[in-house]
């Protein structure tokens, strides 16, 4: 059974959230890049909806992912792609799914910014609905089942809305009812190798991720073994997503031998490409989309 709704809180937040667009040029979600060069901005504007324009070359720096976009050109390419994708999305929401640490929040914020969508993190909405400061505390004081009920409730409320990018909780994929909600929009699986996940998580610690938190032991080893167990338990649940974005595939296309070379912008860009291919391939209007999603959900429920 699902917990009480959080609809009103969501409506209020969306109303106050705006579209993610800002004045004075393009700006990254956390403000690390501001496009101030009007000539470059004009290139992006000209590109919109017109004939194909010669590709801008993205310059790579050696910087880490802290610089979300490696260059102004990369930010413009992303913006240009997002404008193409927007046309096909027709307001449909995007749900990012994937294991803990796969980058749903990081990549989701970038995507929402360039699409002019609102961004929501379902873990944060559950915390807000329950009135507790962290998922870890909800697990401790209540239980995982209580958290999952509230998570379903949040996803149900989000599913009636439009123009959102939602970073779902890592375990949202395990409940078939959540797929019923997520299939109202488009789901994207960020598929990241377990060793890369464990490296990312070990770097920031496991305190905020109760299923990985261990009293002692080497953080990388502990995170890796827990993540491997969860991945096995979850089986193919992530593969129910409409689109799979494999970091290994992106890295190999770019000639890297290691996924850690990929920036969140690279991943956001690939996500937009995959979404575009999916919507074009499935070229459905909203009504047909609903019935198609319905049959997919029925298939998931019978697995
Ligand atoms: N492409 C990347 N390269 C390196 N580190 C990254 C990348 N994307 C995200 N990170 C880092 O990995 C960690 C996890 O990212 P993030 O919080 O976005 O994942 P998540 O999927 O939302 O995780 P959770 O399910 O636990 O909420 C963060 O510290 C983030 O800065
Ligand atoms: O993978 C999971 O089951 C979880 C992931 C997090 O996002 C939180 O939703 C919670 O810690 C559980
Ligand atoms: Mg997150």
UniProtKB/TrEMBL annotation:
GO cellular component: a single term: chloroplast
Keywords (A to Z) from UniProt: Amino-acid biosynthesis, Aromatic amino acid biosynthesis, ATP-binding, Chloroplast, Kinase, Magnesium, Metal-binding, Nucleotide-binding, Plastid, Transferase, Transit peptide
GO molecular function: ATP binding; metal ion binding; shikimate kinase activity
Cofactor list: Mg(2+)
SUPFAM superfamilies: P-loop containing nucleoside triphosphate hydrolases
Catalytic activity: shikimate + ATP = 3-phosphoshikimate + ADP + H(+)
Enzyme Commission identifier(s): 2.7.1.71
Coiled coil: none
CDD domains: SK
Localization (cell): Plastid, Chloroplast
Pathway assignment: Metabolic intermediate biosynthesis; chorismate biosynthesis; chorismate from D-erythrose 4-phosphate and phosphoenolpyruvate: step 5/7
PANTHER family: SHIKIMATE KINASE, SHIKIMATE KINASE 1, CHLOROPLASTIC
Family membership noted in the UniProt record: Belongs to the shikimate kinase family.
The protein's name: shikimate kinase
Species name: Panicum miliaceum (Proso millet)
